[in-house]
Each structure stands twice: as structure tokens, then as C-alpha cells.
């Protein structure tokens, strides 16, 4: 372990036991470092999961009633298992889940590892190489402007992604409605605020608002980001437009209709083409070709003619062409190895299953 | 010794115990020879003899004879004295039933189908104590494009129950209003988990978006609604609420205008006093943001120490300095993030119509209002 720590010193990791209060969004960074969003502790942890045991060969996993199996492993009832996110180790291709066992004072954060045979284990969070950064700069206790004001503001991380030395973090405040989107350099330096961005999106060429991002995914060689909002638009940004301290303006390329919430986004390639998948809480899984996003102008008026598959006459989607896929109840997704995609799917009874699909099936 | 019948699961006693201070499941009643034999087994062999699973998982398992596929509770076995202890990786859950599966003892021989013994972890009865202390906005009427509601609890709460615990009804017909709030995943709590933020569905509030055009505002102008905070919430210790809470709001017209602090009325206290400065707004403001978005700067431009309070209905704000007011110019500084009930701030309306130049006007860094303390109390509303 000490050797491991030395090996990761250049990433700013030190040996210790990270005080993780909760586990939420996950993202893998360089050299198998796992970023863990801790919304209760208002921190992001970078943990060396020391995963060198895998064969490196990805295995197709199809695990029925995964939440029930996790409950068995964690020694609790199924209702006490909340799977928060899923990520795939880039080298071992083992699957990592952030899981909360229980709620309230007795809640326990767990990072679960599923190996290629589906065997459940959990990542020890004691005496591991890790580093930590606060989601927000701590308030200055001596600032007289803070007199008589109780610190009640929080930022809840909704999604994270690591690209070229930057951890990109989308969050929602419990007070201001506007978007919180940060780019945090890794190794962590403590500098987060200078990279905070205010992101606006325009709906139908007329109205512009800031809003929290629910999920996002980099694509096109990390030059673009596709983001879904708490308010259903799917918006494209150029990474080059992200300048610290300036407003970023995105292009609304699709709307997914009323009473629906996009939950997760991933990208994958098939042959020469790149595609994006959007998982929704009410609507089916949606597939979008990246080339169509480039060709799609910003939405100006709701235009159903652009839609290739007008499925639901009650909520006609608008914008970029898309295809509806049959996978039901998709809650989280991860690109397993470029050839296959993992999906956590919830059935009608609320049970969670893990399935693997090849990109040719999508 | 060979005369005795082999010891089986029926002879074993399960009990909750501590081992080195850690909660464990103690399994006693073993034959001494069996125990010494088992002590020699490696972990893999041991787990072919014994397994601890939740009773829920044992009942759901397709075949308990398939020892390799058991949904075992994470943990390890230890032998100490005359007992085997199961030390769980994660604490046992109160009220949860666990099952010991015994695939035969050394003396009885291996059994393909296990004998099963169950034991339930005791649960404590915790009396309900939590209640809702306040629901904000603390006003009787809200704009139809209301953006946020805050629910203040009396103590720290458990997460994960908001979705099933919060309901909205039309006050006139009693019908439920659906899709009012953004799905509460993740739930938005303050650091102590005492205040929950409810976001009214912004997709339905935002002009021009499909959900707004299809479904309209989540609220209906002229139709009062009743917000019910159900008793399904649990406090952080897991005990239920003392009672549910509710609040009825009238629903008024849309508010789509930037905050304009120049319209606020200031009542300036006299020099030498520590009387509070009173600021009266032209509309109610967001309760949470009001607590931290206003402050006073003194004649030298330094923030003034003192106590700030928001007034009834979030329609006013007072500030009493720690030291008496002195002669000279002061500034009431308004942070750009301050919002009214519909998310309009001093720098922008909630969603600005970029084809309308007047709504597009935005100030960069918030605003401030100047006031001058002199010998007598004065009313003013000047801005700069």
C-alpha cells in the first residue's frame, strides 16, 4: 500500500482514511483514481481503489435483482439500499457502484465493486491513498458580512466527469436556482471558485435562463458537452466556450417533453460514428447521433417535423433526430469497454437489474 | 463421545453479543471436538459449513443448497472460547431478521441442504419528536410562477422520503395537483438536514419550453393550493413525525420583473443610536437568500458588524449595528443572487426574453442603496 502511495504521490494522494459521509456521483480519473462525490460532506474525494487484480478483459454482466444481492451483502433490507451511481474502472473493467445503506444517522456509504463474474465486494476506505477537495470554498468565519447569518447553503453534486486534468462537476444549490458548474483541476489544489461557470441556455431562440444541470457527458474527443437540465432541455456546449468568470451559452438541441427528467447520459462509438444515450425517468431510452447535434441549429420554434420517431402524441419531442430504444427503466449507464454498455434498469416492481448490451444492439 | 448424537443446528444457540467491543452474532452450543476441527479449517472451507444471510435474502434465494451462490452477509467468522462469532462487515440492522445456515457439523457430516436458524435483531421504540416548524414563503399569496418552497423541520431528518411525503392539492376541489415539484432526487437539504428545499418544476415555469406550453404552470392563478407535509418523514434516528403539517396559499399573477432595490423604502435610524435600519421591499423575497444577500457598508466602505433579521412575510429586513450609527454615508449592498419568489434577481429576470431589450438589461455586480445617517430619523429610498 505504501508503494502504491508513492506511485500516486504525483497525483497529490496521501495515505489515510477519508472521512466520507455519503457517496453519490462517481467518475474515474487518471491511473484508476476514483472520484466520489460526497454531498453530505460537501466534498469530492479522489481515492486510489488499488484495483490491479482484474484481468483487464471486460465481462458482460447480467445480474438480476442486483439491489437484492446488495442488500444481502450489506446485511440489510432491500429498501435500505440506494444505488447512487455506477462507473467502470478503465483498466480492470470492474464495475463500481456508490451505494448508501440505510438513512439518517445510521446511513453508511459504501463503494461496491463487481468483478467480471458479478461477485460483490466493497472498497475499503481505511488506509487508502486519497485526496479531498471541498465543493465550495469555505466561508470566511471572520467576514463581518456573515454576521447573524447561519450557513444553510449546500451544493448537491448531480454529475461528474474527468477530462484532461479537469474534474467537471455539475451541481444544484438548495438556495439559488442558477447552474453550478465547476472545473476543478486534478491533482486538487483547493482552487475551485475561479473555475465556476454560469451557464445559460436558450429555449426556442427567445428565452434564456440559468438552471442546474442534472447530467452531462463529454463527447467529440472531449470538445463538446451534452447536458441535460432539471427542466428537460438537452443542451450542447463547446468546451472551448468555458472561460472562468464568464457566462457560457449553450445550444438547446432537444426537449424531451413534460413530466420527464433526464437521468443519465453516456457516449459510445460504433464504427466511425459517435452516439449518445439519454436515460429518462418517464420516457424511453433515447439515442442521438452526434453528427445530428452538429447539424441541428439551436431550437427556434417547437418543430415536430425534425423528429424521426414521433412516439408519444401527448408529448411530442422537438429538436435533434433521435431514436427510442427498447431498454426499459434505465436509471444509470456506463460505457464498459467501448464495445459494450452497462445499464442499471428498474422494473415495474422497483427491482434493479444490471444488464450489458453490445453497441451493435443499441 | 461416540455415543452422543452429532451436534446439529438444532443444538446451537444464537445470541447477540460483543466481541472486542464490536457487535457480533454469537453461535454457541458446539461439540468441543467439532469446534477444534473447525478451527483448523481455512476461510473457504469454513464458509462451506456456515453462512449468515438475511432472512429476507434466504427466503428469496432460489436454492440454499447452492452454497456458492448464497447472498452472504459480508463479514467473517471467529472462534473464541466455546463459541463461533460472526463479525459483520457492516453493523446489524435494528429489527432485521438474520439466518444462520449450517451445512452440517464435522461430527454430523456435510449436509447438502442447510439447517436454518433465524434470529431477529431487537429494535428500539423511539418516540416521535420531529415536527415542521415553518414553511416558507411565509406569505398568504404567492405568484403563479413561484419557484421554491422551504420546509423547516425541528430537527435533523433522514433523506429519501420527500417524494412520498409531500402532496399538493387544489384547495377549491381537493383534487391533487400533480407534477408540481421537480422529482426530489437528489433531495436538497441544508447541511444539518433540517431544511428541505422544494423546487417547483422549472420546466413548467419557463416560458417557451414544451412542458410550459403543454402543461402550463404547476400552479393555477386564482386557485389556492394546499401543501401537505406528510407524516411519512423520519428524523435522523428513524422515528416518525409527531404530526403532519400543511399550509394553504392563494395564487396571484406572474411576477416577471427584475428586482429593483430603488423601489425599496428605507427607514434610517438617527446617529448615535443602535436602532435597526428598516428596509421594506416592494414584494416578498426568497427566504433563504434573504438571510445572506444583504449587508451594510459603513462610511469607509467596510462591512458593518451587527444583527440582521428578515421581517414578516419576507417583505422587510432590519439591521441593528453592534456599534451606534455614526454620521456619514452608508450603503445597503444587495448581492446579485438575491431573488424574489419567482427567481427574479437584481441582475436578471428568471427567464429573460432576449428579443425584448428592456428585459435583457442586466447589471454586472448587484446593486447598492446609499443612505445617510444624521441626527434625526428619516425615510428614504434612494439608490445608485
Detail the topology: elements first, then pairings:
The complex is a heterodimer of chains A (362) and B (384).
Chain A: H1 2-7, E1 14-16, E2 26-28, E3 33-38, E4 43-48, H2 66-74, E5 81-88, E6 95-101, E7 108-114, E8 120-122, E9 128-134, E10 155-163, E11 166-173, E12 180-185, E13 196-203, E14 207-210, E15 213-219, E16 224-229, E17 233-238, E18 247-255, E19 262-270, E20 273-280, E21 285-289, H3 290-295, E22 318-319, E23 323-325, E24 330-335, E25 340-346, E26 352-358
Parallel strand pairs in A: 13-18
Antiparallel strand pairs in A: 1-9, 2-3, 3-4, 4-9, 5-6, 6-7, 7-8, 10-11, 11-12, 12-13, 13-14, 15-16, 16-17, 17-18, 18-22, 19-20, 20-21, 21-23, 24-25, 25-26
Chain B: E1 13-19, E2 22-28, H1 32-39, H2 43-49, E3 50-54, H3 55-60, E4 75-80, E5 83-88, E6 97-102, E7 115-120, E8 132-136, E9 141-143, E10 148-153, H4 162-165, E11 166-170, E12 188-189, E13 195-199, H5 202-205, H6 210-215, E14 225-229, E15 245-252, E16 265-268, E17 277-280, H7 287-290, E18 294-297, E19 306-310, E20 316-321, E21 328-334, E22 352-353, H8 357-360, E23 367-373, E24 378-380
Parallel strand pairs in B: 9-15
Antiparallel strand pairs in B: 1-2, 2-5, 3-6, 4-5, 6-7, 8-10, 10-13, 11-14, 12-13, 14-15, 16-17, 16-24, 17-20, 18-21, 19-20, 21-23
Please provide a written account of the structure.
The complex is a heterodimer of chains A (362) and B (384). Chain A has helices at residues 2-7, 66-74, 290-295; strands at residues 14-16, 26-28, 33-38, 43-48, 81-88, 95-101, 108-114, 120-122, 128-134, 155-163, 166-173, 180-185, 196-203, 207-210, 213-219, 224-229, 233-238, 247-255, 262-270, 273-280, 285-289, 318-319, 323-325, 330-335, 340-346, 352-358. The longest helix of chain A has 9 residues, at 66-74. In chain A, 6% of the residues lie in helices and 44% in strands. Chain A has two domains: 1-134, no CATH class; 163-325, no CATH class. Chain A is mainly beta and 362 residues long. Chain A is globular. In chain A, strands 10, 11, 12, 13, 14, 15, 16, 17, 18 and 22 form a ten-stranded mixed beta sheet that branches. Chain A has a five-stranded antiparallel beta sheet with strand order 1-9-4-3-2. Chain B is mainly beta. In chain B, the strands form six sheets. Chain B has a five-stranded antiparallel beta sheet, with no helix packed on it. Chain B has a four-stranded antiparallel beta sheet with strand order 1-2-5-4, covered by helices on one side. In chain B, strands 8-10-13-12 form a four-stranded antiparallel beta sheet, with no helix packed on it. The radius of gyration of chain B is 32 Å and the shape is elongated. Chains A and B meet through helix 2, strand 8 and strand 14 of A and strand 3, helix 3, strand 12, strand 13 and helix 5 of B.
